[in-house]
Amino acid sequence: MLTDDELSQLADVARQCRRDIVRMTNKAGSGHPAGSLSAIDALVVLYLRHLRVRPEEPDWRERDQFFLSKGHCTPAYYAAMAARGFFPREELMTFRALPTRLQGHPSNTHLPGVDSSSGSLGQGLSVANGAAIAAKHDGLESRYYVMIGDGESQEGQIWEAAMTSSDRGLDNVCALIDANGIQLDGAVDSVKSLGDQGAKWRAFGWEVIEIDGHDLSAIDGALTRAALTKGAPTAIIARTVKGKGVSFMENTAKYHGLAPTDAELRIALEELR
């Protein structure tokens, strides 16, 4: 359980990461800010509290691994990685400016600490499964985390992979579902409804935890519970707000892939003070 000091520190980091997200997308003139803002709280708690990694030794064999299946939300990914010490925060401002290591979608051939390139939606859980199966074969205690979007969950490969995770008893796999309710073309339910997401994951044999995805204590507790679950993979369905923290981005599809203008950046940074 988080102490008051730990909670305050995580909140400060999450706020700074939100500022980084809007600044880096503004400077690049492109990127995906809104889905990054919905995902950042979970990534901050994961990277600063639960993910066993060595930034100075990114290829450490016994490390935990994270896979960003919703690969367009690199602003959140990079902000969390920088907060964990994988590279200096100043490098965030090179986002999408070639020749940068911080490409629009994560590349494991460019940036140490990125365990898998991604971008084509629906594939991250399959990658996590493969890594988790190999770890069990090799006797490693490592854990494998994957962040999936709710819009992305319309992909059939997600459910084929979910069935595999359960069938193989991959209790070293944890899926973080960023359930912000909005995808590129509008509300997820209006594009193709997922129905009861919790019920679906349970039907596929997963342990399911449903939380407020902006409640840092709830995120921490869910990740702790997932690590203690044996015999089955865990899905953490994090109910979030698209564009969380920036009023004009919240609950709108407009900023799914639209960077803030200079004027909008000033408003966003003022709100994130």
TrEMBL record:
Similarity-based family: Belongs to the transketolase family.
Cofactor dependence: thiamine diphosphate
Organism: Actinomyces marmotae
CDD domains reported for this sequence: TPP_TK
Name of the featured protein: Transketolase
Gene3D superfamilies: 3.40.50.970
Keywords: Thiamine pyrophosphate
InterPro entries: THDP-binding (IPR029061), Transketolase_N (IPR005474)
Residues of the Transketolase N-terminal domain: 21-266
Top-level taxonomic group: Bacteria
Entry-linked PANTHER family: TRANSKETOLASE N-TERMINAL SECTION-RELATED (PTHR47514:SF1)
A GO molecular-function descriptor: magnesium ion binding
